[in-house]
């Protein structure tokens, strides 16, 4: 028994004095002391030779030894684990990566998509046409024959080699193209870019965007037009504003009207955007002129329809309280980034 106790104490000293932060040496410790052929196990095997009256005391000594060896092993594992957090690799996988900057949609695209989705819910399909147009589709078919004074309302960029061609001044040309296809009824909206020879200012640019609408069927009335547009402005801007229709003139509609909403920027009190009137014009509209229907091969006695056209820039300015439309085409990322969350 003396002999066994001495061996236990010697092992305890050896374990207490052991230290290393090398994982290979730690493994040698494990094999030597607590492995299945290690010293602790072999001393435990000696228990069968211990006299019964000493078994209790010796059992306790051996148990202490076992715990001591196991605790030391845990300690060694920890020091070696800290040195090699990624098990031998020198790459720290917990570091954040390099993020790729993500762009955002342009506010004009956001609002165009919203306008399209509102009218799609009413059954309107999207139609598109060319940006370089001929005189017939941009003017003549729309009841604007050559020398008609209303052509001056829209300062046109003509193609210098052949002035029969021009950059379209409005999306109304797409109406003509769709009516000429001869498939009725027609219920379309036509978003697109248009061009005018205008002086660039806070309210006007030489290119901008419009959405045209056209509905032609058996029995379309002005009441249908009003309800459609009421629905649109409500969906677009909510309930907190007033709407009014004003009689107006367009060669391609009769009667014609313009739709105004109370200024969302000053709440109707008067500001630069509404020119201190409290009202902002948002679109032109009317019942399609019989001449236009006939020009496009549609029987004006049998069919009637309404049309409207709006500038997307104007709607976007009101929706996001933007006071100068030049900023839309300046590519200033500080401005564009503000629309990251609006999809
Ligand atoms: N084309 C007109 C413009 O650019 C807008 C417009 C007004 C379109 C009345 C229409 C309409 O279809 O009925 O100013």
Tell me what you see in this structure.
This protein starts with a helix and ends in a 7-residue tail after the last helix. The model has no long low-confidence stretch (mean pLDDT 92). Helix 2 runs antiparallel to helix 4, helix 3 packs antiparallel against helix 4 and helix 5 crosses helix 10. The longest helix has 32 residues. It contains 11 helices and 9 strands. The protein is 38% helix and 19% strand. The chain is of the alpha+beta class. Bound molecules: 3,4-dihydroxyphenylalanine. 3,4-dihydroxyphenylalanine binds next to strand 8 and strand 9. The site of 3,4-dihydroxyphenylalanine has 11 residues, from strand 8 and strand 9.
Strand order of the largest sheet: 1-4-5-9-8-7-6
The N- and C-terminal alpha carbons lie at a distance of: 84 Å
Q: What is the CA-based Rg, rounded?
A: 42 Å
**Ligands and ions found:** 3,4-dihydroxyphenylalanine
- The H/E string reads HHHHHEEHEHEEHEEEHEHH
Give the low-confidence spans: none
Beta-strand portion reads 15-25%
Mean pLDDT: 92
Helix content: 25-40%
**Secondary structural class:** alpha+beta
- Helix segment count? 11
Give a short overview.
The chain is of the alpha+beta class and 343 residues long. The chain contains eleven helices and nine strands. It is rod-shaped.
Fold blueprint:
Layout: H1 2-17, H2 23-34, H3 39-45, H4 52-83, H5 107-121, E1 125-126, E2 132-134, H6 135-138, E3 165-167, H7 172-180, E4 186-195, E5 207-217, H8 222-237, E6 243-250, E7 253-262, E8 279-288, H9 290-295, E9 304-311, H10 312-320, H11 333-336
Parallel strand pairs: 1-4
Antiparallel strand pairs: 2-3, 4-5, 5-9, 6-7, 7-8, 8-9
Bound molecules: 3,4-dihydroxyphenylalanine.
3,4-dihydroxyphenylalanine (DAH) binds next to strand 8 and strand 9.
